[in-house]
Design goal:
Number of domains: 1
Shape: globular
CATH architecture: 3-Layer(aba) Sandwich
Largest sheet: 7 strands, antiparallel
CATH class: Alpha Beta
Low-confidence stretches: 2-15, 44-54
Strand content: 5-15%
CATH superfamily: SMI1/KNR4-like
Helix content: 40-55%
Number of helices: 7
Order of helices and strands: HHEHHEEHHEEEEH
CATH topology: SMI1/KNR4-like
Distance between the termini: 62 Å
Mean pLDDT: 83
Structural class: alpha+beta
Strand order of the largest sheet: 1-2-3-4-5-6-7
Length: about 230
């Protein structure tokens, strides 16, 4: 039956005479175009399905995190998120600052996250609020741009260091372990996170974009922490 439909389909295709001119359109052209169109729509549908699956997975992670963290706070406001962008643009001249959608969603659920009650802002696992990102980052580098640049030189990675422009601290899980994220929305590393160990001068890649990878990392971390 399928063969019959294909045969009928080809009957209605325009018939063209063979030509030796390579620039002249041939019978294969409309057939090829139809196949291209079919695979284009198929790819678009697969992409949409993948995005929906990713959204469901991220929502699941948010729900799980809210259940596992001992302290959650009121949601961040639009003004607080916008204030962070404006202040980061002021201190990172020339960069286009943005907040990944999943980080915005996380902050809109709770502006601040702490895994344990006696966290002192470093123990357990802590995700800082939009208002804390800049002060915490400044404290790590002693409020000195020179110290920040020294960290970049020490790491040997001008664009991919926790001290590089556009990288700010968003989380921690000890007094030495800090997690930085790239806020430069024009960078291929936007939403990338790195792990700093500031008492041993370590600066290593943690998660690749999109930022949802970091959300899953946090969930895995928390599940492992609570099993210990």
């Amino acid at each position: 039956m399928g063969g019959m439909y294909i045969s009928v389909f080809f009957l209605f295709l325009p018939q063209r005479k063979k030509s030796l001119d390579p620039n002249e359109e041939t019978l294969a052209s409309p057939v090829f175009s139809l196949f291209k169109l079919f695979f284009f729509f198929k790819k678009q549908q697969q992409s949409r399905n993948s995005m929906l699956a990713g959204d469901k997975r991220t929502s699941y992670c948010f729900d799980q995190l809210k259940d596992k963290f001992a302290e959650v706070y009121p949601p961040a406001t639009d003004d607080e998120l916008q204030s962070l962008i404006v202040n980061l643009e002021a201190s990172n001249e020339g960069l286009a600052i943005g907040i990944p959608d999943d980080l915005s969603s996380l902050w809109r659920i709770s502006s601040e996250w702490h895994l344990i009650k006696d966290h002192y802002n470093v123990f357990g696992f802590n995700i800082y609020s939009p208002q804390q990102v800049i002060p915490v980052t400044n404290d790590i580098f002693g409020g000195s741009e020179d110290v920040r640049q020294e960290w970049v030189m020490m790491s040997g990675q001008e664009q991919e260091s926790c001290g590089s422009a556009g990288w700010m601290c968003i989380a921690s899980y000890s007094e030495y372990d800090y997690i930085f994220m790239n806020f430069n929305k024009r960078s291929r590393m936007f939403g990338t996170t790195r792990h700093m160990v500031n008492n041993t001068n370590e600066d290593n890649a943690l998660t690749n974009p999109p930022f949802s990878n970091f959300i899953e990392y946090v969930l895995d971390f928390v599940e492992g922490y609570q099993q210990e």
